[in-house]
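Subject: complex prediction, re-run

Hi both,

The earlier run crashed halfway through, so I resubmitted it with identical inputs.
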Amino acid sequence: MNPIEPLGGGTSSAEVPSSGSTTPAPPGPVTTAELGALLKQAARGDDQAFAVFYDATSSRAFGLALRVVRNPAQAEEVVQEGYLEVWRTAARFDPDQGSAISWLLTLVHRRAVDRVRSAEAASRRDESYHHQNHTVPHDSTADEAHASFEARRVRGALRTLTPIQREALELAYFGGYTHTEVAGMLDLPIGTAKTRIRDGLIRLRDALGVGQTPEEGARA
Amino acid sequence: MTDVHALSGAYAIDALDDAERAQFEQHLALCDDCRAEVASLQEAGAELATTTMTTPSAALRARVLADVAQVRPFPPVVPPAGVADLAAHRNRRRRPLLLAVAAAAVVAAVGVGAVVAQPWADEPAVVQALPDPTEAVLAASDAETHATDLPEVDGSATATVVRSRELGQAVIMTQNMPALPSSEVYQLWLRIDGDMEPAGLMTAADSTVLLEGDATDAEAIGVTVEPAGGSARPTTQPVAYVPLETA
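This time it finished cleanly. Structure:
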């Protein structure tokens, strides 16, 4: 386990032994298993472990919240509430049910989507879907994301989706739209967007090799 | 049947409306396959967030860490003796969600006991671990938590409000509230439709209080200092004002 010290900007190299580090740069300084272990420590009230967990995950959580709610102040609120909930309920986290990062981001995403839907319900109805840009802009965060090995991997996996699958998935995930709204935006017959979203997620999951639990294999 | 399963992807990334979400969650409680699929699709969805990483401000980090310094995590999910056999049985039947909720309620009770009383009171906290509305709110699956500092009260005073819309109730937990003279009392208020409705009294020592009244549509929780016995309407500026999410 890593030393439990709040991470500064560039301490990640300290976690990788310099001897024998001939492999390419790792996707991130903290692995999935380590994140789970940090949550376990946090559940015991170890706020330093929680700080390390925050440092390893906050750019994903904030980037996601910002993308969905658009407003930085609201995104910060969503993230702050999300982390507090993770802290309070860390003892309920079960690594057999999923990864810590998925748990966190699912929770943050849900809060972000709930927020845009309640806050923007009225104004959204007034907008014409057809006047909206179907591709959600990337530019504000492109630099940081581009630097990430993991982001490139995910972009590669996204290219295995059909354009409709990818668009439906991005509108739902980043736009916070319901599958019915997505169908309207993409001129799909009602009821088919949910299938595109599911198919897209399955393809993404399989391309990235995530979400495979031993139990799942046994059941299949 | 097939139709319901097809909602798993949209559910995993919150692309269902409220009615569909509720409907699918009922199905989810009974369908192991869908639960496993949703979990795996949530992993896939979470990967999308890596394409849009943005470093948040240092101020956010400070606020998050200040939050956690003020709030005790729920203890681990350990069923009390006697429930253990049932728990093992349920686990084998793959109902971990229901068990977790039930156990969390028990566990929250222990936590509240420890917060309200002196931490090392004579009686073991477990003795007080009977289900009550306060614990139900804290353990509710839809509990929303809002923490705030109270600089007007005291540099170290904090308030955390937990509200469950499902239960229609809210709980306030305070720390480091200064004691008031016996002629005064902290009074709680629910702001509903712009009006402040009285929601009970609180002493400095009594730091975890279930608010009286229906908190379902409350826009905010306020705390004022009032004459002993309380007032029908606030007579002073709030020492704490915690906005809640509005529907």
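Chain B touches chain A through 60 residues (CB under 8 Å).

- K.
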